[in-house]
Specification:
Oligomer: single chain
Number of strands: 7
Number of helices: 10
Strand order of the largest sheet: 3-2-1-7
Length: 240
């Protein structure tokens, strides 16, 4: 695998990071060991980075020379199964081909579009964004420190986009889809007040006082159990 700035576009390859990390070629999984999967995952999530940063992130408790040697070994392993141009860069840094199809890149793009407010959302665009943003957890089953940081970062971006989508879908008269978006946000952060407040307001707007009360009671139980606090006056006022 040549790591070259002029590497050709990668065709037919896809990198999935939501759920279990996997590289696919024309829909078929490419066999990779865990460390090589994490290497391409790191490059996809953080972009082009110096080799020293990559080695130190993936092998944090290993001396620098050994970490760099492990990185070189992982690159040799990737060379055996991935084409020229999948990994790009030079002697000092590494990245992934910009043309690569990566599920997280699409999620980030949809979140940024929703949050920027530069595009007025139609029902079709809002539902496309909702479908793209909801999905499995990032790098399921991986618990390295850097993975936790990236997982929280993506979760915050998804959460804020889902809350915005909830309001936009309500504005568009799509209350059922707005409820789906708010529920997805609540699933991401069950202790966050905004999704609960949005859900309660949506149920009340539909005349479903029972569902609104059920949502409130469930949220209050979680807060009391996890944080030993009650909902804010703002949430309490919704049911008055």
């Amino acid at each position: 695998m040549t790591v070259d700035e002029a590497a050709p576009a990668v065709v037919g390859y896809r990198l999935n990071l939501l759920g279990d990390a996997a590289v696919l070629h024309d829909g078929a999984p490419v066999p990779l060991l865990r460390r090589e999967r994490l290497l391409v995952s790191l490059l996809a999530l953080q972009g082009s980075r110096p080799r020293g940063h990559i080695a130190g992130t993936l092998w944090p408790e290993t001396p620098e020379d050994r970490a760099r040697a492990s990185l070189r070994q992982s690159l040799r392993t990737l060379r055996q199964v991935l084409p020229d141009g999948f990994v790009v860069g030079g002697p000092g840094s590494l990245g992934l081909a910009p043309s690569l199809d990566v599920d997280v890149w699409e999620v980030r793009h949809q979140c940024e579009t929703v949050l920027s407010g530069t595009v007025r959302l139609t029902v079709r665009r809002a539902l496309e964004a909702l479908h793209a943003i909801t999905g499995p957890e990032l790098l399921l089953g991986e618990f390295d420190d850097w993975v936790d940081v990236e997982r929280r970062r993506l979760q915050r971006q998804r959460l804020h986009a889902l809350e915005r989508l909830t309001r936009e879908l309500k504005r568009l008269g799509e209350t059922a889809w707005a409820i789906s978006a708010a529920e997805a946000a609540a699933d991401l952060d069950p202790l966050r007040e905004e999704p609960a407040a949005l859900l309660i307001a949506l149920h009340l707007a539909e005349g479903s006082v029972v569902e609104a009360r059920r949502t409130f009671d469930s949220f209050r139980r979680r807060l009391r159990t996890e944080l030993r606090v009650d909902p804010s006056p703002r949430v309490l006022a919704l049911l008055r």
